[in-house]
């Protein structure tokens, strides 16, 4: 489709109800082992979450600023340059794919965990749903499934070219559904994804422009689908059992390997929330979308095996109920020190601040690095994380507007010295 560019300075009329904090872009606070910097996307004052964030082959950070709670918004793609600390507003996705946010339908409001960098420099994406139509306070897919005027048309699969600031649209993949998460097999030119709300696994063959529905895998929507070195894809069923997808036949098979859970539960809702490759790329570290706060390591070799690090963030005696979803661990990322970083709330101490946590996966030791506590920014959810090639860590924020991210700058990072390279970047959202 024709390339389309947008102004680097999007303008929106702020809502009177918008939270008015005093945090400014560039504000910093000291943390254990480094410092934390806040970067807010204040040119998008009504956008309220950032789910997709990735490191491009050019070493820059690419961001999907989403507008999921206010009607009539579509996702923007932004870019942050670690060398210059410059934030650029590149393109509004909805108009570029023929779905302007004021067309009366549920909007192309999000890129969820579907923002994947390619070695060719392109960013491979899929849109997701939840944003209401313009002038509607709320939207639910089931209430408008057959309503041609209001329903979500489906997730668009597309590539974004940072060199030309343009989008190539493959068109709608899952009809009437969004794409919750996605992974890319570059060798086979395949995209894997999971739809919402019906929870189907799909494959998209980019060169053939062919969409294949592999069927429904349950009721609870996994937040991750991930790939091993051979291009085999993995996710879980509703109870945390690993599902393996053969890269050549697309056959789905449930392994006798299960994500860990507390002894008095059966694992329901233990689908993965976030998964990252180990530093050597042989295994995966993940956290669940249940209420457990376990960190686990999955080894895909053979018939697979699972190792649990236990409940690394929460008192063992804390009651395990539905409210614990509010205190999930999120935003996994390995640092250049080989340690696993993530976030979690301290809800059991009546403190609603997200904390940055570090896990030494060799010794099994967890360390609290401090609270992510900037003026006007309490109450947010962490969404996902990535790194730049120098070793700084980027944590995407969700739940406040304007949305933004936080940059943890470890003391061991030296300006201009690269500690990561392209081989360390994951091929899933």
What can you see in these coordinates?
- β27 and β28 (393-398) form a beta hairpin.
- Helix content is 1%, strand content 42%.
- The chain has a single domain (45-335, 373-424), classed as YVTN repeat-like/Quinoprotein amine dehydrogenase (Methylamine Dehydrogenase, Chain H, 7 Propeller).
- It has a five-stranded antiparallel sheet with strand order 1-2-29-28-27, with no helix packed on it. Strands 3-4-5-6 form a four-stranded antiparallel sheet.
- With 429 residues, the protein is an all-beta fold.
- The protein is built from one helix and 29 strands.
Features:
five-stranded antiparallel sheet, 42% strand, disordered N terminus, 429 residues, Methylamine Dehydrogenase, Chain H
Summed up, what is this model?
Helices cover 1% and strands 42% of the residues. It has 1 helix and 29 strands.
How many helical stretches? 1
CATH superfamily: YVTN repeat-like/Quinoprotein amine dehydrogenase
Q: What's the SSE pattern?
A: EEEEEEHEEEEEEEEEEEEEEEEEEEEEEE
- The CATH class label is Mainly Beta
The strand line-up of the biggest sheet is 1-2-29-28-27
Named CATH architecture: 7 Propeller
Q: What is the percent of helical residues?
A: under 10%
Tell me the span between the first and last alpha carbons: 24 Å
Shape: globular
> Roughly what fraction of the amino acids lie in strands?
35-45%
**Overall pLDDT confidence:** 91
**Named CATH topology:** Methylamine Dehydrogenase, Chain H
- Poorly predicted regions are 1-9, 11-21
Query: What profile does the largest beta sheet have?
Result: 5 strands, antiparallel
Number of domains: 1
How many distinct beta strands?
29
Which class of secondary structure composition applies to the elements?
Answer: mainly beta
What is the CA-atom radius of gyration, in angstroms?
Answer: 20 Å
């Amino acid at each position: 489709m024709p390339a389309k560019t947008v102004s680097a300075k999007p303008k929106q009329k702020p809502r009177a109800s918008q939270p008015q904090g005093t945090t400014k872009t560039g504000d910093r606070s000291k943390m254990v082992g480094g410092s934390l910097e806040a970067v807010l996307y204040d040119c998008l004052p009504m956008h309220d979450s950032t789910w997709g964030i990735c490191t491009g082959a050019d070493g820059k950070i690419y961001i999907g600023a989403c507008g999921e709670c206010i009607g009539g918004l579509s996702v923007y793609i932004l870019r942050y340059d670690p060398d210059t600390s410059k934030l650029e507003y590149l393109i509004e996705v909805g108009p570029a794919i023929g779905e302007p946010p004021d067309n009366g339908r549920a909007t192309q409001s999000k890129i969820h965990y579907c923002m994947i960098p390619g070695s060719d420099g392109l960013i491979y994406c899929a849109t997701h749903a939840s944003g209401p139509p313009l002038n509607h306070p709320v939207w639910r897919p089931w209430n408008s499934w057959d309503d041609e005027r209001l329903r979500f048309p489906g997730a668009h699969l597309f590539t974004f070219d940072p060199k030309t600031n343009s989008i190539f649209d493959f068109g709608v993949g899952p009809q009437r559904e969004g794409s919750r998460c996605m992974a890319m097999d570059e060798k086979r030119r395949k995209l894997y994804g999971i739809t919402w709300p019906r929870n189907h696994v799909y494959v998209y063959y980019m060169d053939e422009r062919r969409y294949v529905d592999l069927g429904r895998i349950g009721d609870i929507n996994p937040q991750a689908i991930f790939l091993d070195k051979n291009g085999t894809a993995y996710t879980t069923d509703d109870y945390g059992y690993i599902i393996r997808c053969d890269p050549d036949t697309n056959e789905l098979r449930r392994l006798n390997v299960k994500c860990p859970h507390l002894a008095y539960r059966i694992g329901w809702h233990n689908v993965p929330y976030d998964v990252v490759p180990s530093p050597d790329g042989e295994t995966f570290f993940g956290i669940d979308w249940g209420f457990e706060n376990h960190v686990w390591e999955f080894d895909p070799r053979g018939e697979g095996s699972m190792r649990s690090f236990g409940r690394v963030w929460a008192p063992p005696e804390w009651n395990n109920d539905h409210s614990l979803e509010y205190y999930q661990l999120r935003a996994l990322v390995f640092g250049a020190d080989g340690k696993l970083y993530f976030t979690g709330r301290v809800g059991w101490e009546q403190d609603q601040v997200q904390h940055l946590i570090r896990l030494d996966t060799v010794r099994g030791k967890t360390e609290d690095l401090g609270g992510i506590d900037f003026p006007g920014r309490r109450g947010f959810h962490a969404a996902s994380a990535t790194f730049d090639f120098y070793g700084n860590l980027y944590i995407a924020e969700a739940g406040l507007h304007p949305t933004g991210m936080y940059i943890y700058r470890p003391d061991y990072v030296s300006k201009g010295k690269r500690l990561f390279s392209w081989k360390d970047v994951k091929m899933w959202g």
